[in-house]
Amino acid sequence: MTVYAIIGGTGLTQLEGLTLRQAVELDTPYGAPSAPIQRGDYAGREVLFLARHGHPHRIPPHQVNYRANLWALQQAGAEAVLAVNAVGGIHAAMGTGHFCVPHQLIDYSWGREHSFFAGDLEQVTHIDFSHPYDAGLRERLIAALRAEQCAFSGHGVYGCTQGPRLETVAEIARLERDGCDIVGMTGMPEAALARELDLPYACLALVVNPAAGKSTAIITMAEIELALAQGMGQVKATLARVLVNGSDKL
């Protein structure tokens, strides 16, 4: 039975309903992960949960130790990763409260430790990253969203920016020209690191605000927090359905 890891983003620093067995504190060659890994039972099966930004939310996107997080999850026994991300909507279909299971991404971040293949190595390794998200895991998320009757898109391009500030109107216009449908700050290097570790990885993105210039209103944290509060119930129900229906190996 596949052991799933859930990486919780903004708004999901705790997985309510998780029956905790153990808080696993692992040191890694890359330093400490964002938080102890919670091992427990959720939706009737064992899962691992890690708060990407720590608990409470304290680590900004550009300072998350993505290498330590992914390494620790694998060492704890993860065989697949479900990543939850709060994003801004660029495409007209990506309104607040809409879900997206992206199939592609474009990385605009910089300066982050983005590979395990660094330093004094005997051989450089170049992973195939043509399709950054695992197809089977994506299909399970899509099926779960459909069963939960959520408003969602089963494909989309995730543009990953540096943060922690939100983007300018001109930057969003550029991302739109590049083909991005949603924008976030934590999609990379997380997805690439999972690929380097041969961990199937998929993203469940919740749109929490229109991106800059996509509405006449100023983007506020109050607006984002309201969207998170309203959407997290569907996030957890979707994850639970994936776990219930995902007992076979990927």
Architecture overview:
With 250 residues, this protein is of the alpha/beta class. The protein has one domain: Nucleoside phosphorylase domain (Rossmann fold, 3-Layer(aba) Sandwich), CATH 3.40.50.1580. It is 26% helix and 24% strand. The chain contains 5 helices and 11 strands; from the N terminus they run ββββαβββαββαβαβα. Strands 1, 2, 3, 4, 5, 6, 7, 8, 9, 10 and 11 form an 11-stranded mixed beta sheet that branches. Strand 9, helix 3 and strand 10 form a beta-alpha-beta unit. Helix 2 packs across helix 5. The protein starts with a strand and ends in a 5-residue tail after the last helix.
Query: Total number of β-strand segments?
Result: 11
CATH homolog superfamily: Nucleoside phosphorylase domain
Q: Span from first to last CA?
A: 9 Å
CATH architecture, please? 3-Layer(aba) Sandwich
- Could you say what the CATH topology is called? Rossmann fold
How much helix is in the residues?
25-40%
Outline type:
globular
User: What letter string, H or E per element, gives the SSE order?
Assistant: EEEEHEEEHEEHEHEH
Rg over CA atoms:
17 Å
List segments where confidence is low: pLDDT < 50 over at least 5 consecutive residues: none
Mean pLDDT: 93
Into which percentage range does the β-strand content fall? 15-25%
- Biggest sheet architecture: 11 strands, mixed
For the record, what CATH class applies? Alpha Beta
